[in-house]
Amino acid sequence: MMPAPMSPLAHSSPLRPPLSSTSRSHLPFMAVSGGAASSSASAEAEQDISRGRGVPKEAPVPQLEVIGSKRALLSQFASLKMSYRPFPVIGWNRHVETIFAAFFRSLPRVQFRRECLRTRDDGAVALDWVSGDERLLSPDSPVLVLLPGLTGGSQDTYVRHMLVRARKKGWRVVVFNSRGCANSPVTTPQFYSASFTEDLCEVVKHVLKCYPKCKIYAVGWSLGANILVRYLGQESYGCPLAGAVSLCNPFNLPIADEDFRKGFNKIYDNALARSLKKIFKRHELLFVGLHDEYNIPMAANARTVREFDEGLTRVSFGFKSVDDYYFNSSSSNSIVHVQTPLLCIQAANDPIAPSRGIPREEIKENPNCLLIVTPKGGHLGWVAGEEAPFGAPWTDSVVMEFLEHLHHERPATSANSSCEIDGVQQPLSSISVQT
Asked: Low complexity bias: where (predicted)?
């Protein structure tokens, strides 16, 4: 949900009690460090940054929290063989990490071919494909659809890095720029929202029409992740996607809205509101003469995302109030219906997608879902790993290993096939993600 400048070459800008031992991962590199002492140490480290004292490079870091019946498959991932280590100083404060990633992460150069897709309601979205892939890749190459965060698009650094990594694996990649984002055209008096999945439905159908022999996967960030998970739940057993990844998903929008209006988060709120107003003012003439419950002046002069949603968004999509919009648009309500293999990656200290809003129990109960919560990461940050601090987010390698696993997985050849997990012989079918 971080704001993104509209220049096509600009960088992007923008608690729950400890789990019982039965729900924690037993993998040594994913041991869950809970308890008040760990939380206190983390809080003190962040306070040290804010006071300018810095943090020791070797300060203890709690390991990954992993939830899901198929968490054993993560032991195969090379990217998870080592402990999660935030980059010194930058990675120890959630706001420093969020802002650093937004302004200083490198921007890979990519040549796009834009396709404007007309939707059924006469609207339009912009699909940015990698130029030349229509000739270089085979028709059955897997396709990865990328859904950026609120006001984000193909100009964002986190989108570009994921695109480049997938492209190196031979995947065809397309960025789904929502209405008005990344200079996508707006042809009707309606943008998009956290609840609106119709455009994604049409994009997936269009990709399948273009490449009927391929498997399609999707990755979404922040608001894009919320839309993606809602789509998965909505389509349920009929979902055409072979797999999906949700990153820094706000999940529970009332909780996210509550935290968004506190302390330093007001900076993000104001920045996002400015980005929304920029998009709106470019297409303001489309809304002239609209009556009903619209409050166009409120949207045009919004100082917060909530004001923009109250004046415009919730009316466009038929909600009686902004609180009604947030409650009924939360993707946490959709997890129970998801039948597609889904990996969710969150940061415990995300200022915009609060940890207490993560639907842990729902994810735990759904055999198709898997959750990784990193101890640090901020929002759209994850400045850690081999490419830190200026390169790709730590999450990218995990995402691609998960997607590659899904794409290359084969059914067990025998009902008796098994392997040993935590010292117990288990059938392969009980630990592999089914596509």
From this structure: 7-22
Cα–Cα separations (whole angstroms), residue 199 to 192, 193, 226, 319, 337: 9, 10, 14, 19, 20
Token pair 């389509």 is found at: 235
- How far is Cα 428 from Cα 141, in angstroms, rounded to an integer? 27
**Nearest CA-CA partner of 124 in 202, 65, 7:** 202
Q: What are the backbone dihedrals phi and psi of residue 419, each rounded to the nearest 5 degrees, phi first? A: -150, 165
* Token digits of residue 219: 């990755």
Residue range 200-249, pLDDT digits in tens: 999 999 999 999 999 999 999 999 999 999 999 999 999 999 999 999 99
Q: Exposed, middle or buried by CB within 10 Å (0-12, 13-18, 19+), for 268?
A: buried
Point out the residues that are catalytic. Answer: 222, 350, 379
To the nearest 5 percent, what fractions of the chain are helix, strand and coil?
A: 40, 15, 45
Asked if 216 contacts 242 with a C-beta cutoff of 8 angstroms, the reply is yes
Q: Count other Cβ atoms within 10 Å, centred on residue 114.
A: 15
Q: For residue 245, give the 3-state DSSP assignment.
A: strand
Scanning the structure block, which residue is given the tokens 């946490």? 332
What pLDDT band is residue 409 in, cutting at 50, 70 and 90?
A: confident
Pair of tokens at residue 326: 């947030």
Q: How far, CA to CA in Å, does 301 sit from each of 167, 185, 193, 298? A: 41, 22, 19, 5
Instruction: Give the integer Cα–Cα distance in Å for 194 and 197.
Output: 8
Q: What's residue 92's pLDDT?
A: 92
Choose among 383, 342, 265, 435: nearest CA to 68.
342
